[in-house]
Amino acid sequence: MILLSHEDWVARRGRFIALWTDARHAYALYQPGELVAVELVDGAYPALSHAGAAWFQRLAHDLNGHTALGATDTRPAIDHGRAADGTGPWPEFKSPEVEGVHQVAVGPIHAGIIEPGHFRFSVRGETVLKLEARLGYTHKGTLGLIRGKSPRLAARFAARVSGDATVAHASAFAHAAEAALRLEVPARAVYLRAVMAELERLANHTSDIGAIAGDAGFAFLDARFALARERLCAAAQAAFGHRLMMDAVIPGGVAGDISTGGAAAVLDALTALEAELPSLKRIFEDYASLQDRVVGTGIVPPALAAAYAAGGYAGRASGQTHDARLLPGYAPYDNFALFVPVEQEGDVAARIRIRLAEIPESIRLIRDMLHSLPETPIAIAPQAGSGAAVGAAESFRGPVWYWLRIESGVIADVFIADPSTLHWPLVEHAAATAILADFPLINKSINASYSGVDL
User: Strands 34-39 and 2-3: what pairing?
Assistant: First the structure.
């Protein structure tokens, strides 16, 4: 960590990732894991001008009462201002001051079994002029639950920050804990973590592609990709004892070895997906009615994606090349010549194409890793040491970051940055380039996590 003056704090440039505060300092994280800090003065610090800093500064105020001096966005992040009896002021949503605008409210409870979030659209006719997303409905006090626990006990909470990315969150948490305690994880555990991470990526990519097609009224692709996801989840259950592989990654290694017959189950699921993928991709590309719904819809320009350090398919569909598996990088990906696809169009179609391109790459990685699994132990016990470190892991959405400060084997402080934090502003922008009926396609194509940002 580098302690900066207030002037250098404000002048710092780079690919901004996250901001948080503790009792004495405000911290800012820049890719590829550079951590800087500034001292708080009377509970305040200078606001940063980075596009992605606004939500983090709002969260620091809601959680810790610290003020970002000069911030232009002072709305609550997770504090809804509602008392236990349901009283309190309702949030104000301002529409653009043009003639013929009306507001459409959606959520926080939605028609499907999904996480809660409120969307307030300002529309004129069918055209969306502005979208304001209000989150915080899944605030669980995760940071507080992690503090005061050993890394092994706290790992369960990291694994539940966002259930669809449980392996990535658990891995990023483990990387931070292991760096802070200077642990060297056994090679077999490193490989098994990567196998699970790529399985998680495949399960989510197949689910997302099908769901986007379903939102466009194309039920066939939805059904076929849903079957592919089911095969992958069943293989994960057979190999690692849980369909989502929750609690399989722990600080020091993995909770259990791959089961007898587990590798064969995984490889069978990969073979089935690989066999059907070309025809499914051809259907996506050849049906004009589907292409009409996704091409040119929900555009995120490359400059905006760069300003928000967008990762995963949301960033790579808009010209961003970053991948935490390569930068800052972690084992075992340095042994497997990782290919990262990139598109420039930034629309729903491009975000689907990135997913389609990542699927065969993840299949290749899993096969290569399973065929070269090292014969070592699967875990070592963390000692009761002290230290502070940042850890990262690439989820299917993009990089997950954890910062931990451990004192005598107990976590004294923590912060978590899910990639969705920097993606929600892109959802708001993309919605305002389309009509209201296209929002389900746009929202699913970016697929930002609600739970991942509420902490």
Answer: parallel
